[in-house]
């Protein structure tokens, strides 16, 4: 009987010792302790603090902060050419002027490509047919793909380039500029189009509209007309 009681006491003590790691605190300052001593305490720590969730969270890649705004193309100045769109004609002209017989091949190529882009929608900052055009993006695309000329990236800087042309001397392919950002032509240069002939020009007007032909004689454009310029490539070919 004493022997049985001894075995029972030993078994109880063993069970208690086995359960102790579940409640053990992590050891501090025992970096040199034997592995056998550290193991129960480490296991107790892992059990208490449920490492699975922590390890899963640590394995997830860091999430980048949400961008505050869409990035602009490098070196590309966004136009604001639809600020004074109130009063702008809803539609362009129906009958497009024909080019004179003595128009140079270079100018014909420019106008031909520009006309093929009619009805492409206006997109602020747009510079490609697949996405849409703003005014300077349209002009820049036509010149780049028709004659290989790289124009500045917005209407204000395009106005500063090239040769000044009197209204009566304008030819197909010349650039026509407008002050649409202020009322009745009092603002800065903010819009550009490509002159066709007979007082007509092609451009990408403003939000909600598409590439179309308009007349310089129409009241809205006449009041905001700022002048015409001839890009270098056309000036050399004239």
UniProtKB/TrEMBL annotation:
Keyword Kinase: no
Family: Belongs to the peptidase C40 family.
Protein name per Swiss-Prot or TrEMBL: Hydrolase
Source organism (scientific name): Dyella jiangningensis
Record's signal peptide: 1-24
A Pfam family the protein falls into: NLPC_P60
GO biological process, one term: proteolysis
Boundaries of every NlpC/P60 domain copy: 104-232
Assigned keywords, A-Z: Hydrolase, Protease, Signal, Thiol protease
Stored SUPFAM superfamilies: Cysteine proteinases
Taxonomy of the source species: Bacteria, Pseudomonadati, Pseudomonadota, Gammaproteobacteria, Lysobacterales
Any GO molecular function: cysteine-type peptidase activity
